[in-house]
Specification:
By secondary structure, the protein is α/β, with parallel strands linked by helices. Helix content is 49%, strand content 9%. The protein has a six-stranded parallel sheet with strand order 3-2-1-4-5-6, with helices on both faces.
Length: 354
């Protein structure tokens, strides 16, 4: 099932991209003067298969899960904050909720592996297991659980696309998830702990040194196979990250653009691209996370984030900001006059020559 989806992802239309770029070049402005808005408009056109892509219906899918690695004392907050913040998401009180309301986007919250049980009518309950195991001691999860989490992410996107959403954001909530994201990045690329590991939500210098040591030792112990993304996810991954991998694969498979949020989301995007490199064509990176490994992942993916705002909250908070930029880019493509159309306005000129 997963293999079929991965293998049937198609490239966006190169012909439509060229035609959209030609239209953008014909608009009444100096060539290239709307910068990245131009490439984003052409990218969304190519993905949508039309040079006049309709206005976007936007939502962010937040994957919430717990991480056994927090037992090592290397996370920013107590584990229960995952559940508490998930409830706050459902009550519309978190950063992602506040930023989304200002951009007209919905937030969907998925329990893909929270350790606690939450009862709320708006929570999408898809718990694979109540948190991962501590990957410093044993594999984070079974291979079939990692696969199930990826499939869940794919299904979450397919359901939103069926409801009419055509721009998807990826978010997460999981205390300890910068540790597994760093471990995944190191396992896939061979990056060093100094390049890949940062302070996450905020830890002391001593805890950072310990975090690097714990992650390096876990990778030496488990020896995840860099050519097998499911092996990497199972041994040192997280249920939230695996769910987000599914969101990227699902979006590419359904031919909708998908926004990368911060460091955890970027690590998931990297995994998705290892499953199928065509996924990259569907990615829109929102902002540069202050987590140091983020920049290295962008280099690996040959992507450049749109915004530099010193953000490092996660939750999907970069997505609503990127949504606003995509909206603006499509408005340019759909409503701006061409040079020829603009020249008609010569008729309004009054001849003031003596
Ligand atoms: O996305 C980011 O760039 C980002 C960077 C640092 C921390 N976070 C958030 O903080 C939590 C993980 O931090 P930590 O230190 O517990 O691994 C998790 O809930 C993330 O949403 C997110
Ligand atoms: C309060 C809090 C909110 C968060 N949102 C994402 N990660 C978080 C970590 C903490 C600690």
């Amino acid at each position: 099932m997963l293999q079929t989806i991965i293998q049937t992802i198609e490239s966006p239309s190169a012909a439509i991209r060229t035609a959209a770029q030609a239209r953008i070049d014909s608009l009444a402005k100096p060539l290239g003067s709307l910068g990245r808005l131009e490439s984003i408009a052409a990218q969304v056109a190519a993905i949508s298969g039309t040079i006049t892509p309709e206005a976007r219906r936007k939502c962010t899918i937040v994957m919430a899960a717990d991480h056994g690695i927090v037992d090592e004392g290397i996370a920013c907050a107590p584990q229960e904050v995952t559940a508490i913040q998930t409830i706050n998401m459902l009550k519309n009180l978190t950063g992602i909720c506040a930023l989304s309301s200002s951009s007209g986007a919905r937030v969907y919250v998925v329990d893909i592996g929270i350790k606690a049980q939450i009862s709320h009518p708006d929570l999408i309950e898809r718990k694979i297991r109540p948190g991962t195991a501590n990957f410093a001691q044993e594999a984070a999860m079974e291979r079939h659980e990692a696969e199930q989490a990826v499939l869940t992410g794919i299904q979450m996107v397919q359901e939103r696309v069926n409801k009419g959403y055509n721009l998807i954001g990826t978010g997460e909530m999981g205390i300890g998830n910068t540790s597994c994201s760093s471990a995944i990045f190191m396992a896939l690329t061979g990056a060093s702990a100094d390049e890949a590991v940062g302070k996450g939500g905020g830890i002391t210098d001593e805890a950072l040194a310990l975090k690097k040591q714990v992650i390096a030792a876990a990778l030496a112990r488990h020896q995840p196979d860099s050519r097998d993304p499911l092996d990497v996810l199972a041994k040192v991954g997280g249920l939230d990250v695996a769910g987000m991998v599914g969101c990227f694969l699902g979006a590419a498979h359904s031919k909708v653009p998908v926004v990368i949020d911060g460091f955890i989301s970027a690590a998931a995007a990297l995994v998705a691209c290892r499953f199928n490199p065509l996924v990259r064509e569907y990615l829109i990176p929102s902002h540069r996370s202050a987590e140091p490994g983020f920049t290295h992942i962008m280099q690996e993916l040959k992507l450049e984030p749109l915004l530099h705002l010193d953000m490092r909250l996660g939750e999907g908070t970069g997505c609503p900001l990127a949504f606003g930029i995509v909206d603006a880019a499509l408005s340019m493509l759909n409503t701006m006059a061409t040079f020829d159309e603009a020249m008609i306005n010569r008729d309004y000129l009054v001849d003031i020559r003596p």
